[in-house]
């Protein structure tokens, strides 16, 4: 991995830890629904970003590095692939109202100048072609986007019954309204520090299977990008998620990462819009990785090749310390949807989801 790409990743994850402190300012207002839809040093000889392990000699902005990661700008420990902290909050109750009624995203102060979305009809997972059972997170580009007058995103509200709220760091906010996928609204994560995060892992038990789904269009096809990721601040191997151009990739490939094990997919990265589905059957420590994960791009099962990134032995490791979830971190990309289930979807369910999302976004 080049120094410039690693430096960008270290900067991203030094900034993540200060998200909560940036979320203050004026009262929220309404946004019309029609309006748009310090650099870290390399730790030792090599250092993994996004599920990485630091070496023994590097340093990052705001603190010295250790053998297993870096220090955040506020002095807290963080791994190269992300940081925990008070990134967001789960919103109480079902604030969407009865089925068919307007769903009002809550009037929360999520940053100075940030405006509240207008009411919109409540989304139905069944009507959208998504399984309802186990739906834990549903972020969609045409709903729940809190943004400034310049359409810089302050927060993105979950459209599932759980009502989680993902927040952006002030000064590194992604752009809403200037980009779309298949004529549908998307959020343009146009800098390496434009990520959205929340503390915790959405209530998913540590050993539970899970499914990550993302609709993404890459702009930078050579930079590292995580569409959806969960992990533990300060524990470099405790990460899992989609991982395009993963650490020590053999080339520009889509990929996945899980507990110190890094894999290239057969599919090369592309600027075409894609539906990614990453299914993990179990997170029980000691279980083999390859027989318990499945990764599909636009409905095509991917052959996964282990690369030299990570220090894992091909088995799942303890995930009980995981303490954050993030979407769209790293290289320039546009995201239209991010979905998480607290279980492994069946093959039939995955196919149905892929068909529904490909149809919605006009993906072949």
Care to describe what's here?
The protein is mainly beta. The protein is 9% helix and 34% strand. It has one domain: Jelly Rolls (Sandwich), CATH 2.60.120. Strands 6, 11, 12, 13, 16, 18, 19, 20, 21, 25 and 26 form an eleven-stranded antiparallel β-sheet that branches. Strands 10, 14, 15, 17, 22, 23, 24 and 27 form an eight-stranded antiparallel β-sheet that branches. The longest helix is centred in the last third of the chain and has 15 residues. The two termini are 32 Å apart. 56% of the residues are buried. The N terminus is likely disordered.
* CA-based gyration radius: 19 Å
* β-sheet strand percentage: 25-35%
Structural class: mainly beta
- The end-to-end span amounts to 32 Å
Q: Poorly predicted ranges (pLDDT <50, ≥5 residues)? A: 1-101
Query: The biggest beta sheet, please?
Result: 11 strands, antiparallel
Helix content: under 10%
The overall average pLDDT, rounded, is: 77
Outline:
The chain is mainly β.
Please specify the SSE layout and strand pairing:
Elements: H1 3-16, H2 19-22, E1 29-31, E2 59-60, E3 63-64, E4 70-71, E5 77-78, E6 89-90, E7 102-103, E8 115-117, E9 120-121, E10 135-140, E11 145-147, E12 153-157, E13 164-168, E14 175-181, E15 184-189, E16 196-199, E17 210-218, E18 225-231, E19 239-242, E20 253-258, E21 261-268, E22 273-280, E23 293-297, E24 300-301, E25 304-306, E26 324-330, E27 333-341, H3 347-361
Parallel strand pairs: 1-8
Antiparallel strand pairs: 2-3, 4-5, 6-13, 7-9, 10-27, 11-12, 12-13, 13-16, 14-15, 15-27, 16-26, 17-22, 17-27, 18-19, 18-26, 19-20, 20-21, 21-25, 22-23, 23-24
